[in-house]
Amino acid sequence: MDVVLSLLGAGLLEALQPLNLTMIIIGCTVGLLVGAMPGLGSVNGVAILLPITFLVPPTSAIIFLAAIYYGAMYGGAISSITLGIPGASTAVATVFDGRPLAQSGRADKALVAAAVASFIGGTISVVLFTLFAPPLASFALKFGPPEEFALMLLAFATFIGLGGDDIPKTIFSILIGLVLATIGLDIISGKPRLIFGDISGFMHGINFLVLAIGIYGIGEMLWTLETSQGKVTVHKVKMSFSSLVNNLKEVKSYIGTTTLGSVLGYFVGTLPAAGATPASLMSYGLAKTFSKDPDSFGKGNVAGVAAPEAANNAASTGSMLPMITLGIPGSPTTAILLGGMIIWGLRPGPLLFTEHPDFVWGLIGSLYIANFATLIINLAFIPVFVKVLTMPFTILAPVIYILCVVGGFAPTQTMHDVWLMFIFGIVGYFLRKLNYPVAPAVLAIVLGPLAERSLRQSLLASHGDITTFVTRPISGTCVALAALLIAYPVYLKYKKRKLGKAAISESA
Fold first, then answer.
1. Do 90 and 276 contact (CB within 8 A), yes or no?
2. How many domains does the chain divide into?
3. DSSP SS3 for 185
4. For residue 188, what are the domain limits?
5. pLDDT digits 0-9 by tens, 372-409
6. Residue 115, φ and ψ in degrees, nearest 5
């Protein structure tokens, strides 16, 4: 333990060097802006700015890119809360409660909760990273295709609680999302499927952001225009130092949810190819399932903002663990970081800790500082973010529309996805009118490809033996937990119905 603390102290001193500290502050600020732009995200931000880092030493370069990654995880919540458009897939769960909070004039509360939860998640994950990097890396290696599928099944089980009391509608929404996830090329045979008469645009599948921006951007705008009948009330938010202090005092009300999301997010982030998106979705689902007031989720519960934000920030740190210790990227962004490290002559793996301790511990030390710096920058800019909501809707609606078009075009740079985004927006609008939950469908299209790949790999390796998912210890445990999470809302609904019948009989 003393050795770890001494190495961490040396890493903090390395991170506090003037050049490295400057890189952290610039990286966090740029990342915050990158994360807030719909369709851009940490992957594109790090990829675009990677060539710039060749002007500085390798340690400063990786610190700069890691700071962008950290800042982008914070920034994704900004557009989710203020505009209802997720900046990236990692922030889609933040829309569910962040947007209703903003619409009710409590955007400051949502933004403060997102910033503080991100800080808590980042801090817990960095501490876990420092203390348990080698053993957690070896444990993550035990996750084969069956364990990955069982984890995805566990994630789907947490979605059951997202649709409220109407479980059949929730399951239907999940199945629609899974069908959409299968569009494109078959992962085993390579043959096209569900491409609707050889429409070339469907060959690359349906990008998650196209669906999310269509439903939560275009669909939400159409819904707002209809319900307000053209007279949209602008909810002005007064942001002052006293309101900031009051919002910070409310942290204790969601500290338990935030801590759970942080630990869960870090663990999921350490699994190769899992990433921050499943972590944030699972954290939100669990927060709602075990909340004392689950009906308030989706209507403006601050815990619904804190849980996913803590998880996605913790996962971003966790995804660096397999990259550094094993040379296996835990997310698309860390894959770019891995490429940068190789270009700089640094070979990721267990020997990195002994051959380049200054680099490794300097990076770990920078994560502590970047976490604190991003919190301060985020809180300082909250009054600016809140001013977005004071704009007249006649100006805000075209801005949202333009951002949606740019966000829909950015991932693949084809007009096919832009038209698809408009279609999803209209479909999302009608689903909302019919009271169908759209969140499970959006989440299913994210995890669908991951679940399909691990399922088919598992069945191929076991020659079609489905018991492989329950005979292996880790996957069996995940399947059992998934079954319990599916049964729990069903039990609560049955219990509520039984109590209602008892009350009616007593009154009669």
1. yes
2. 1
3. strand
4. 2-507
5. 888 888 888 877 777 766 666 677 678 777 877 877 78
6. -65, -45
